[in-house]
Design goal:
- This protein is mainly β and about 190 residues long.
- It has strands at about 15-20, 20-30, 40-45, 50-55, 65, 70-80, 80-85, 95, 115-120, 120-125, 130-140, 150-155, 160-165, 175-180, 185-189.
- Strands 4-3-2-1-5 form a five-stranded antiparallel β-sheet, with no helix packed on it. It has a five-stranded antiparallel β-sheet with strand order 8-7-6-9-10, with no helix packed on it.
- The N and C termini lie far apart (about 45 Å).
- The relative contact order is 0.13.
- The mean pLDDT is about 85.
Length: about 190
């Protein structure tokens, strides 16, 4: 475990240990006010259970970087006990708790390659690519007269995920989705 040397080392994407738990930095803002010590304000997501924590770090705080290992694995299936993957090198089955992914588990497709994050030799979370392409399976037709700006409709994707998209998206289209925010990005041709 490496100790981060300065507050500026705490930035988006870095994983840190807070009370022995691995957290990923979602947002970081360096604040320096007159006559006060600088502070690094952060939003952190627990990689084990997905909960978000707001925390401020001051100069002199000892911040350890979490030692995570990534292993390529392919998605197999999910059930009431969790989500199952197969390690690409050893072909071992790996189970992850559904709570660690939340709604992002609806982005997984059979056979999809992802990185499994291991902490202390136990799987804790899945690192998805930044964007994923999925097929629209159900989309209502646009209603005539809906031409105001930013009008959206609700659609269903092949994995069962429902989200809001622009009116021109129709059934059978492939769309790109941001895996962090679960939002529509663009239509794929």
């Amino acid at each position: 475990m490496a100790i981060l040397p300065t507050l500026n080392s705490i930035r988006v994407g870095v994983t840190v240990l807070v009370q022995g738990e691995p957290y990923q930095v979602l947002w970081a803002n360096f604040v320096r006010m007159q006559q006060r010590k600088p502070v690094m304000q952060t939003k952190l997501r627990n990689l084990k259970n997905g909960k978000v924590l707001e925390m401020s770090f001051k100069p002199g705080d000892s911040v350890e970087e979490a030692d995570l290992q990534k292993r390529k694995s392919s998605y197999l299936y999910r059930d009431a006990n969790g989500i199952y993957f197969m390690d690409a090198e050893t072909y071992d089955s790996v189970q992850i708790d559904s709570a660690s992914l939340g709604d992002r588990m609806l982005l997984l497709q059979e056979g999809m390659l992802v990185d499994i994050l291991f902490f202390n030799d136990s799987p804790i979370s899945v690192s998805l690519p930044p964007k994923i392409d999925l097929k629209v399976t159900s989309a209502p037709p646009p209603i005539k007269g809906d031409s105001a700006s930013n009008v959206t409709k609700s659609i269903t994707l092949e994995t069962g995920l429902t989200l809001q998209v622009p009116l021109f998206i129709k059934e059978g289209d492939m769309i790109r989705i941001n895996t962090d925010s679960l939002e529509y990005v663009e239509r794929v041709t």
